[in-house]
Write a structure and sequence with these properties.
Blueprint: H1 2-30, E1 33-39, H2 45-59, E2 64-70, H3 74-82, E3 88-91, E4 101-117, E5 132-135, H4 142-152, E6 156-158, E7 170-175, H5 181-186, E8 192-197, H6 202-213, E9 220-223, H7 228-234, E10 239-243, E11 259-271, H8 276-288, H9 290-296, H10 311-316, H11 323-329, H12 336-339, H13 341-389, H14 393-416, H15 421-445
Parallel strand pairs: 1-2, 1-3, 5-7, 5-8, 6-7
Antiparallel strand pairs: 3-11, 4-8, 4-9, 4-11, 10-11
Length: 458
């Protein structure tokens, strides 16, 4: 019976291992993936948008969850991605670009807009010489971009101008709060306004209205960056932006024709080592949920895919795109089999190995049973030979008892475990032969002692 118990335990163990492996695989496939995302700037639209996205993922029970790390500025959020504290981050490349960051989506594009009342006579960047240029002081990160563009046109930027005239080949940058802009234009303290903004936002429209109200004929000139492409070659973290004709109003039309300029972008970036299928899933859900997010956060309408011509251009760009995002844009996301093929192959391999082990063990146990029956059969034949030569009734009685025990053991093996028919047939013949020989020997030995039972075994 010990062999029976051993066999059952092995079977139960194999079943338990297989079920545990299946349960582990099911748990791994079904569990939500949690990603840490670094969000900035404090008070900007991006933190609100990402929070809404995270809430939507949880509410719709998607396979993703976002853990948000908030920072005051995009320099800190980029650093969190760089040093591994975050899997995703809101990044403004012209401020700080992590070297392990790849783009998933553009959250917001900003255009550098120089707006001035038409009567100022300012039509190009060169016309800004000796002029006073207003900017919003709550956006200090914009100053670096403004300075680079001004310097590209051979002008210097005075960031703390005095009250007197502006020096030749110089532009005075004057910080003015939005609520003070109307008075600043009316008092001639500034001649033009420069902002980096998403042109489609209500804030951009509101600020352009202030400049329009400062114009006698309500006409506004938007100064473009005519050498935008050349400037981007020098400053690859910037990008070309076009402000469409009439974007800010149609009577009078602002601008009167499309204006080419440069700009920056707020990007959702992922670490380069993030799995392609996970990056594709983050990108897919963001765009699929965009219209729903826009109902609560209008800034979601500005989310866009980064422009690229082909896969090679996307992955070799100066601001490269994550391969997982490209999979989504090209509709080449991995299916279930492709995504988990490694695990499927592993489970199949382990299952095949376990099956082979089980088959080997079963074969081994069967061989052991056959060997035990064969040993018992050999012993029966040996007892038959001994019985032929013996006249000692006591010895013959012991042989008869041993034959009974061997017959019982063989019967037990046959009942509890499958055994080859030819093996059992041989054992049965050996039992009958041994029993007959012992009976004849006992008859020849004459009366005396206790006659053994010699139980028949079918």
């Amino acid at each position: 019976m010990r062999g029976v118990s051993f066999r059952r335990e092995v079977v139960f163990l194999i079943i338990a291992v297989v079920l545990a492996a299946a349960a582990g695989l099911a748990f791994y496939v079904s569990r939500a993936t949690t990603l840490t995302i670094a969000v900035a700037p404090s008070g900007g639209t991006e933190p609100v948008l990402i929070r809404a996205y995270a809430d939507a993922l949880a509410a719709q029970q998607k396979g993703l969850r976002l853990k948000i790390l908030s920072f005051d500025g995009v320099q800190e959020s980029a650093a969190a991605l760089q040093d591994g504290r975050a899997d995703l981050a809101v990044v403004r490349p012209d401020v700080a670009l992590p070297n392990n960051g790849l783009t998933l989506a553009i959250l917001r594009e900003q255009a550098m807009i120089v707006a001035t009342p038409e009567q100022s006579g300012i039509k190009t960047f060169s016309d800004l010489a000796r002029k006073r240029l207003a900017f919003l002081p709550e956006r200090p990160a914009d100053q670096a971009v403004i300075q680079r563009v001004i310097q590209h046109y051979g002008l210097s930027l005075a960031t703390e101008p005095g009250p007197g005239p502006v020096a030749a080949r110089s532009v005075a940058l004057v910080g003015v709060e939005e609520q003070d802009l109307p008075e600043a234009f009316a008092a001639k303290r500034v001649d033009a306004l420069v902002i980096l903004t998403t042109p489609t936002t209500p804030a951009a429209m509101r600020i352009l209205r202030i400049v329009q109200n400062a114009s006698r004929n309500r006409k506004v000139t938007l100064v473009g960056v005519s050498e935008a492409q050349a400037l981007i070659e020098r400053l690859p973290r910037l990008q070309a932006v076009t402000v469409p004709e009439g974007l800010f109003g149609g009577n009078p039309k602002i601008p009167e024709e499309a204006v080419s300029t440069i700009g920056t972008s707020y990007r959702l970036m992922a670490r380069a080592t993030l799995a392609r299928n996970v990056a594709a899933e983050v990108t897919q859900h963001l765009f699929e949920m965009r219209s729903g997010l826009a109902e609560a956060v209008p800034a979601a309408n500005a989310v866009a895919a980064p422009a690229y011509d082909d896969n090679a251009a996307a992955t070799s760009a100066k601001l490269p795109i994550h391969p997982g995002a490209i999979d989504y844009y090209e509709r080449e996301q991995q299916g279930f089999i492709e995504r988990y093929e490694t695990w499927i192959y592993l489970v199949a391999f382990l299952g095949g190995g376990l099956g082979s082990a089980f088959a080997w063990l079963s074969q081994r146990l069967s061989r052991l049973r056959r060997e035990r029956v064969e040993i018992a059969t050999a012993r029966l034949l040996e007892l038959r030979s001994q019985a032929r030569r013996s006249t000692d009734r006591a010895a013959l009685d012991e042989m008869a008892a041993e034959i009974d025990d061997l017959a019982a053991n063989i019967a037990r093996y046959a009942l509890n475990r499958p055994t080859e028919d030819r093996t059992l047939t041989a054992a049965g013949i050996a039992i009958d032969a041994a029993r007959s020989t012992v009976r004849r020997a006992l008859d020849a030995a004459g009366p005396g002692g206790t006659k053994p039972s010699l139980r028949a075994v079918e």
